[in-house]
Amino acid sequence: MREPIIDQREHGAVAQALLGWPLPEQTEDIVSMAWLVERLRSSRVDWGLLDKLVRFEPSGYTRQTIARTTACELLLVSWLPGQASRVHDHGGSGGASWLVRGMLRETRFAWAGDRLVPEVIVGANEGDLLVEFPDTIHRIDNASRHGAVSLHLYAPPMQGMTPYDASLAPESLRPPRPLAAKREAPGRRRRPRAT
Ligand SMILES: [Fe+2]
């Protein structure tokens, strides 16, 4: 995952051009989370600008900060088929993920004792908006055969999200088994060491 850098001075202007409205600068400018989510939903996106900002990379999904104010932050995430986030929270921030291109899948988790278990799996289509609460723990992946692009608006700006160990999650989210040990060349096999 790589986070390309936009010149700090351009952040506000890019966000306004992209959404058609300026991001709130101060916390008190946000009437409520529902108001902020509704503003995002009613944005008049500059699709040409969006296409210029999208960055697909085979090594992993890209996460780009479009703008960050005292009150909130706007991120653009580009997903190739098969790419996925880790299971994560949002550092206590709330907001919404708006799927502007393609399809994504969200898996929400809930604590069952000291384990995270999947609570609900939602398929998101182009135009759908997923609301994220301060206690939301989820994983997003692109299970489709096409690229996907999502805009994420969080308030307050994320102070760091916690990635959860996938081994705490059920079998389907465990990392792949480690590759088998490299086979040694014939004749150079070592004897097992005594313990
Ligand atoms: Fe998230």
Automatic annotation (TrEMBL):
The lineage of its organism: Bacteria, Pseudomonadati, Myxococcota, Myxococcia, Myxococcales. Fe cation binds at H88, H90, H138. One of its GO terms (molecular function) is ferrous iron binding. The keyword Iron applies. This is Cysteine dioxygenase, type I. The keyword Chloroplast does not apply. Keywords: Dioxygenase, Iron, Metal-binding, Oxidoreductase. Residues 164-195 are annotated as: Disordered. Belongs to the cysteine dioxygenase family. CDD domains: cupin_CDO (cd10548). It comes from the Bacteria.
